[in-house]
Amino acid sequence: MSLVGKNALVTGGSRGIGKAIALELSKNGINVAISYINNKEKAEEVVYEIEKNGVKGMAVKANISKEEDVLNMAKDIDAEMGPIDILVNNAGITKDNLIIRMKTKEWDDVIETNLKGTYLCTKSFVKGMMKKRYGKIINIASIVGITGNFGQGNYSASKAGVIGFTKSMAKELASRGINVNAVAPGFIRTDMTEILKDDIRDSLVKSIPMGRIGKPEDIANIVVFLASEKSDYITGQVINVDGGMVM
Amino acid sequence: MTNFERVKNIIINTLEIDEVASITMGTSIMDDLDADSLDAVEVMMALEDEFDIEIPDEDAEIFKNIGDIVRYIEEKIN
Fold first, then answer.
1. Domain count of chain B?
2. What does this protein do (chain B) (predicted)?
3. N or C: chain B end with fewer CB closer than 10 Å?
4. Any chain B CB within 8 A of the CB of A131?
5. What is the CATH number of the domain that holds B57?
6. How far is B29 from chain A (nearest CA, A)?
7. Do B45 and A130 touch (CB under 8 A)?
8. Is residue A239 within a helix (H) or strand (E), and if so which, with residue range?
9. Domain A7-241 belongs to what topology?
10. What is the pLDDT of residues B22-53, one digit of tens each?
11. Mean pLDDT of A45-56
12. Which residue among A127, A172, A175 sits closest to B45, beta carbon to beta carbon?
């Protein structure tokens, strides 16, 4: 496999979808760095699991919405692992509220992590990819960035922003051998969806043609594909992984 | 090698061109060498590495030709 020996960064890789992506990449021979914001122990557990697959792993504490953190993270990764070939902009948060009740801080926090964080990380690592004329950038969006969602004005706006950003970057960077795509998960079993009330979960499941909630591994599989040479002719696309929820 | 030659080599390598003789101090990267804006940024990045300097975007915007670049770099490194 041509992925062996490549370097990847998965932001927000200590749990949920990010963790599944980090582990799946490492199973394919890729060295994986993850960023985390709070839980050092969990991040280190993921690194341990990454390294069990015979590749290099590392965890960096960084708030990706802060430029200084991102620059420091880039320096640390470059020193310890070398240039990044595959960037997975996965870190994201929700602070759901109805617009009538939404605090500006809730709006700002979500936009800054999900959208500005994606911009800052892309900017930090794209230079190295341009020099090598090679790179794979995979942004984790969400189907609510396409459909909108009750109570998620901030989150859906941030994810729609990520989709627009993905397409612009695909156009800017295509001539430099860099593919930029987005994956839009539907309803996936993670801490983020675990907090939903039972009745909301039940009605959500009813809206999924496949009638079941997705697994983080369902997202990880498509990310590995988008990181590989098998997707070399695909760029600027949003791939929904949602059991058929959005068509 | 003169600074002009170093700059010229960087441009030739970055843009992967072979018309070496036609490049002079009066050559414009974008107008004469068919570079797009992304090419121009890459030339600046490569020059930063070659001369170990920083070229802020605001400075790069005013370069009209290779002579401007060479003079700017000479001012920075001296």
1. 1
2. Carrier of the growing fatty acid chain in fatty acid biosynthesis.
3. C
4. yes
5. 1.10.1200.10
6. 18
7. yes
8. strand A238-241
9. Rossmann fold (3.40.50)
10. 899 999 998 988 888 899 999 999 999 999 99
11. 98
12. A127
User: Please, which residues have CB within 8 angstroms of residue B70's CB and are 6 or more apart in sequence?
Assistant: B3, B4, B7, B25
B45 vs chain A: nearest CA distance in angstroms? 9
Q: Which residue range(s) make up the domain with B24? A: 3-77
Give the list of residues 6+ apart from residue A131 with CB closer than 8 angstroms, or none. Answer: B45
Binding-site residue ranges of A for NADP(+): 12-15, 90, 155-159, 188
Asked if B42 and A175 come within 8 Å (Cβ–Cβ), the reply is no
Given the structure tokens 């030709």, which residue do they identify? B65
Q: State the Cα–Cα distance between residues A182 and A116, nearest whole angstrom.
A: 16
Chain B nearest CA to A225, separation (Å): 28
Give me the residue label for tokens 């996936």. A188
Q: Are A121 and A146 in contact (CB under 8 A)?
A: no
Residue ranges of domains in chain A: 7-241
The share of chain A scoring above pLDDT 70, in percent, equals 100
Which residues neighbour A183 within 8 Å (Cβ) at sequence distance 6 or greater?
A138, A139, A140, A141, A219, A222, A223, A226, A238, A239, A241
Element (H, E) at A89: strand A86-89
Q: Is residue B36 among the annotated active site residues?
A: yes
- Distance between CA atoms of B49 and A178, rounded to whole angstroms? 22
Q: Which of A86, A32, A40, A79 has its CA nearest to residue A62? A: A40
Band of pLDDT at residue B78, cut at 50, 70 and 90: confident
List of residues 6+ apart from A37 with CB closer than 8 A: A12, A61, A62, A63, A91
B16, B36, B42, B44: best mutation site toward chain A, by most A Cβ within 10 Å? B42
| Binding site feature residues of A | 12-15, 90, 155-159, 188
